[in-house]
Write the structure tokens for this entry.
Amino acid sequence: MSRLHDLNIISTNGKSAELFEELFPKILENNYSSPSSFIKKNWAVYKNDPTGNSNVNGAIFEYLLASIFYLEGIKPIFFQAQVVFVPNVNFDFLCYSKEFGPIVFSAKTSLRERYKQADLEAMALKNVHRKSKSYLITLNETEANSVNKKIASGDVIGIDEVIVASSFNFDELLRSMKEYSFIKPEKVDIITALRTIE
């Protein structure tokens, strides 16, 4: 097994994981000036690869994000995470902070109408964890600007911000994440009571 597998940055099988290892065998030794430059440079490597397949765009983007989260020391981070009392939702990435509880990142190479699903998921999370934060990370600047206008006007209420991964805003997001204390949350008892009548 490779170091990428050992660290759980990539899954243990599948074409996308194989392609990622083939294209980026030393990605964790990668020198970069900023997180956004890391994403921009490595996404270009993937897009320029003749063996590339658009069916794995989303998985490759998630692996790049997982790599930069690791390199920037944002951990523990949970991949394809579920949160108790938030049914039927798998969050692409989730950190649990002492300050806000869950902070989730949805990864979409392009948005189209998919931001609506991320917004619903974020609202479901905020119904349970009021202080939680939800970010949608994309590569499409035009779509990001459009959804951020909807956030500003109140038409989108669950997502805190849409961030373009190849932009300065992504660098700022990761910088701000480093100010939080990330922990593995304790297991929660479903019911606690002073007394129980049986």
Remarks:
- The radius of gyration is 18 Å.
